[in-house]
Amino acid sequence: MSESSAPEVVRVEALRVVYGSKIAIDDINISFKRSNITAIIGPSGCGKSTLLRSINRMNDLIPAASVSGRVYFNGVDIYSKDVDPVYIRSRIGMVFQRPNPFPFSIFDNVAFGLRVNGFKLTKDELYNKVKDALVKAALWDEVKDRLDNHAYSLSGGQQQRLCIARALAVDPEVLLLDEPTVSLDPISTARIESLLRSIKDEYTIIIVTHNMLQAARVSDYTAVMMPDDDMVGRIIEFGETRGIFTNPRDKRTEDYISGRIG
Amino acid sequence: MGDQILAQYSRRMRFRKILDKVLPLILSVAVFIAVATVFSVLFTTIMTGWHRLSLNLILNYPSANPNEAGMRSAILGSIYTVGLSALICIPLSIATAIYLVEYSRGGRLASILSYNISNLAGVPSVIFGVVGLGFLAYWLGMGRTIITGAFTLAILILPLVTVTCVEALKTIPDDLRLGAYALGATTFQVVRRVVLPRALPMMLTGGILGISRALGEAAPILIVSGLLFIRDDPTSLFSRFTVIPLQLFNWVSRPQPAFIELSSAGIIVLLIILFALNGLTIALRQVLARRAEWA
Ligand SMILES: Nc1ncnc2c1ncn2[C@@H]1O[C@H](COP(=O)(O)OP(=O)(O)OP(=O)(O)O)[C@@H](O)[C@H]1O
Ligand SMILES: [Mg+2]
Prior knowledge:
The complex is a heterodimer of chains A (262) and B (295). Chain A is α/β, with parallel strands linked by helices and 262 residues long. Chain A has helices spanning 48-55, 85-91, 106-116, 123-136, 140-143, 156-169, 186-199, 212-218, 241-246, 251-257; strands at residues 8-19, 22-33, 37-41, 65-73, 76-77, 92-95, 174-178, 204-208, 221-227, 233-240. Chain A has 10 helices and 10 strands. In chain A, helix 4 (123-136) packs across helix 6. The longest helix of chain A is centred in the middle third of the chain and has 14 residues, at 123-136. Chain B folds into 2 domains: 2-52; 57-294, MetI-like fold (Orthogonal Bundle), CATH 1.10.3720.10. Chain B has helices at residues 2-49, 55-59, 72-103, 108-121, 125-139, 146-170, 174-182, 187-216, 219-225, 244-252, 257-293. The A-B interface holds A 56, 58, 61, 63, 86-87, 89-91, 93-94, 96, 98, 100-105, 112-113, 115-117, 150, 163, 166-167, 170 and B 105-107, 173, 175-176, 178-186, 189, 193-194, 198, 292-295. Magnesium ion (MG) is lined by residues 48-49, 178 of chain A.
């Protein structure tokens, strides 16, 4: 399943994120490969979202947060001075825990990223890009006759797929998903999992999840995060998902996976 | 033992039940007093003034003859100064609010600024008149003119309108901002495409609230312009002026009963303008809210 020969797109080195004076995560070293889905699992508050936000510089928007260490995207350190966080965010898409479509039409939601990033497109090209994104997000068939309807007229699961389509429309290389299915029912969850598998060849996908079975079902690699005694989140184990679930090296991983902690 | 607890319990229950009955009674008396006061004032004003309502009141200049006297110059003065003050104040307030909420995101400058803005809201309006006269009219040499009045009113309502604009921005969920940022939008784009369309209706409501307040202000204008008897239309922003509340003040202070009636009629006109502004707010809010959903 997994392609270990695939190029490394994101590499995190000695990452530490501090909120005010509290160290949230420390000593994070991990890399993410193209055409693979990497799951990040761990108990609540261990810093999974914090790690995810450091990869597309969303932490910049939190005044109290300060980041040290390195995050390389295609070999470029995204925290170096001459890198524009706005550009990074257009190349590394993000989907949030709760569906957050804009209060626009379905079409305008998907077109938003293309418009703000100044893509010079004719009407037809714009339509085609929107359509491609909706097809990839497995939403096209359900909305193709009502692209002008308000996004809030969609169900929660459809809204979340709309958010995925919105992120895919700008052609990112990396897709970050922060517990994208916690607010959804099992059928919507299954749809999103299968769409992630169907698009993974073209992207580097990183998904945070609380759901062990979900990690086992969709991911090729899994990173387990755990707070240490000072409540600083660290990665305690990282490897191929099958190995992590069948043969964990760390005792805490075993306990966490079997539901004894977390 | 059990009986005792039960008795204590039922006594407390009874007290709470009585309180439940009495409290609404007290509250409704309070509401009645408030409403009755407003209505009796309104009623007296309308009874005294309504037969003086005529086109003369709006179209004529003030005059020593109560049957001919109107408040044309005051109405024009109010429209000019208040309108201009809104044009100055609303964009400034919106810009300030956007800076405070969207750009400086809780920085030091932002907290100093917002602290001062709330303080400014509590300054008595006469003070603004003194500042207008001393600083704008004399120091800057703008004279006791419409433009000075407009700037004075603009500064007067700036805190009120800015605070409403800040509140309007805070009602927009952060989810939407983060969603837009995550797609590579700049702060300007987030504001223009996501935040502002949704916040604008509430901001304009705040603007009209400020306009209503400015329309009713007499004290600062009295200081800036002086109590004037003006018998011609303003020709430029540097004309001398008077406003509706000052005209009313002038009429009320005259001994003849006819002028008291005139001032009541003037109040009715002012109230009609205020109600019209309120109606405008509601209409605007609905139109813009519908548009925002579809922007
Ligand atoms: N904006 C913030 N300001 C201050 N502290 C924060 C902020 N966001 C997160 N933290 C702290 O950082 C730590 C890690 O939080 P984070 O949200 O990354 O955890 P998480 O693993 O995503 O948890 P969950 O599974 O509940 O989403 C927590 O202790 C949290 O309190
Ligand atoms: Mg989280």
